[in-house]
Design goal:
Elements: H1 2-16, E1 20-21, H2 22-29, H3 33-45, E2 49-61, H4 63-70, H5 74-81, H6 89-95, H7 119-133, E3 137-140, E4 143-146, H8 154-160, H9 170-177, E5 181-193, E6 204-205, H10 210-215, E7 222-223, H11 242-256, E8 260-261, E9 268-270, H12 271-274, H13 306-317, H14 332-336, E10 338-340, H15 345-362, E11 367-376, E12 388-398, H16 403-416, E13 422-429, E14 432-442, E15 447-457, H17 459-465, E16 472-479, H18 481-487, H19 503-508
Parallel strand pairs: 6-7, 8-11
Antiparallel strand pairs: 1-5, 2-5, 3-4, 9-10, 11-12, 12-16, 13-14, 14-15, 15-16
The structure holds phenylalanine.
Residues 343, 345, 393, 429, 432, 453-455, 475-477 line the site of phenylalanine (PHE).
């Protein structure tokens, strides 16, 4: 292994030397300095050596300088071509293949045309000037002669021993001026012994292997130290969406308050459970195609339990429990229309019916239910509205349930998500009376915003489902999206749900921990 050989040569050299220069080491190993760097890094990471990066300015040959070094300087070429007896300028130029251009007499007013300069002539002139300056030749009455015989090519000699020329010297300046040499900065290392220095390098293993363990070889091995501060590789895995994190928190709070989750795994519901069972008249505008998604296949649901159906029908048509109903012809067909549920109260009505069935067998018992799941409305999409969103709903079935208790539960629920300032405003729902909109203080918008709806279920709704007259049911509902957007500071709902969601945001979103005040 050549790298190992190199490493050992360096370590052996260090045994007797205080410091080494990486440039010289590279030279003795006859490898590129760049190739040595890898070897030094390995030795340093194992603490065999310590290096210090240094810089040094150096005089190096230019291309032109190199050409001269390989042949001769221009002035020396001219010097050599001059015969013993001397030579005229015209004849000397001829020796260099320079043609004599006759001088054209200039006409009056004619612009002097610049003659394209012959590069050979230019070269010659430069060399000639230098030959005179350097004391190779002289010119006397038109005759050019050598000043002395057997002069050396001074420039070529200088270039061949460039290393010995001081950087700031006159000699260096001249070479740089003539563009034969230039200054270049080289980077190299000063190498010293490291804290684990040893004259022989032992390769360190990155990991303990089964083979090393089995053979007992591990006792002799050296291992690379572990960087405990290194960050682990990012694991690609599933991440909870902010909506799911907030949803989880809400259900934890409700479970903590003694609520039990209702089964919400049915997005398609019959109009009966979504509207009719909630004493919502069939002409109600909410059933309008603008708000509700109707299903086309299958268009109608199976007939519900005839007993409930007929009781609901009678309540709509003629009333009961002190009510005169809506006084209209109730249609089975309309109630059977399949829709995507528009609120989670569709689940609540079904559960109330189920509880009433259980009362027949077991008798009365109080119950607290909640649900959190998707609902659908055919709405215009904008920054705060989507056609599908989530509702959270709580239902308390209790003989002692009252409006005061409802307000108390709602206050406690919101207190646990950090909302203390609440306002209740009377409103109308077909299925609750009294009904209250819930308002909370928005800390960012600094104003009251509607955060939920609530009420006491009407006897006209409860009676047909079979809930005894002395049992009260109170309920409230709210959306999941708005609190999530406030919590995670999401300004546009379309960046939270749908194709514009950034997976990275979902990955990096913080935990949701509500702080109650
Ligand atoms: N279903 C109502 C809505 O969609 C919320 C609500 C639930 C109101 C329970 C009263 C009682 O806004």
């Amino acid at each position: 292994d050549q790298k190992l050989d190199h490493a050992n040569i360096i370590l052996t050299q260090l045994e007797s030397a205080e410091t080494l220069n990486s440039m010289e080491v590279a030279k003795t190993l006859s490898i590129n300095h760049q190739d040595l760097v890898g070897c030094l890094l390995q030795l340093e990471s194992a603490n065999y050596i310590k290096t210090e990066g240094l810089k040094q300015d150096q005089l190096i040959l230019t291309d032109e300088g190199n050409t001269i070094l390989n042949s001769q300087s221009g002035e020396y070429e001219i010097y050599q071509k001059i015969p013993e007896a001397g030579i005229s300028m015209v004849d000397l130029q001829k020796l260099f293949g320079i043609e004599q251009v006759p001088k054209v007499k200039q006409e009056q007013g004619e612009k002097k045309e610049k003659q394209a300069e012959d590069p050979k002539k230019k070269q010659f002139d430069l060399g000639f000037g230098n030959a005179k300056k350097m004391g190779y030749i002289k010119m006397d009455k038109g005759v050019i002669t050598k000043i002395a015989n057997d002069l050396p090519d001074k420039i070529k000699l200088e270039l061949s021993s460039l290393k010995t020329i001081q950087l700031g010297s006159q000699q260096a300046k001249l070479l740089i001026e003539r563009k034969l040499a230039m200054i270049s900065t080289i980077k190299y290392f000063e190498i010293k012994k490291g804290i684990k220095y040893a004259p022989n390098f032992r390769e360190q293993f990155a990991a303990l292997t089964t083979e090393q363990l089995l053979s007992g070889e591990w006792k002799e091995c050296e291992y690379k130290s572990i960087n405990l501060n290194a960050e682990g590789e990012k694991i690609s895995m599933g991440n909870l969406h902010p909506l799911l994190k907030v949803r989880k928190q809400f259900s934890q709070i409700l479970i903590g308050l003694g609520f039990e989750e209702m089964p919400t795994n049915q997005f398609v519901e019959s109009s009966f459970w979504n509207f009719d069972a909630l004493f919502q008249p069939q002409k109600h505008p909410a059933r309008d195609a603008h708000d509700t998604f109707f299903c086309s296949d299958p268009e109608l649901s199976e007939e519900v339990d005839i007993t409930v159906r007929d009781k609901v029908k009678a309540m709509h048509q003629t009333g009961g429990v002190g009510s005169i109903g809506y006084q209209y012809e109730w249609s089975h067909e309309e109630a059977r229309k399949n829709i995507l549920r528009t609120h989670t109260t569709a689940v609540s009505s079904k559960m109330l019916h189920r509880i009433a069935q259980q009362y027949k067998e077991k008798g009365y018992f109080p119950k607290k239910y909640f649900s959190i799941d998707k609902v659908f409305r055919n709405e215009t999409l904008d920054a705060t509205h989507l056609a599908e969103f989530h509702q959270i709903e709580g239902v308390v079935i209790d003989k002692n349930a009252s409006l005061g208790q409802l307000m108390g539960i709602i206050r406690e629920f919101f207190r646990q998500i950090g909302i203390n300032k609440l306002w209740f405003k009377p409103t109308y729902n077909p299925y609750t009376e009294p009904s209250m909109e819930i308002y909370g203080y928005h800390p960012v918008l600094k104003k009251k915003v509607e955060i939920g709806n609530s009420g006491v279920f009407r006897p006209e709704m409860l009676a047909p489902l079979g809930i005894p007259e002395d049992v009260n049911v109170i309920a409230w509902g709210l959306g999941l999206e708005r609190p999530t957007m406030i919590y995670y500071d999401i300004r546009d709902i379309r960046t939270m749900v749908g194709p514009e969601v950034k997976v990275e945001t979902v990955r990096s979103n913080a935990f949701c921990v509500f702080e109650s005040k």
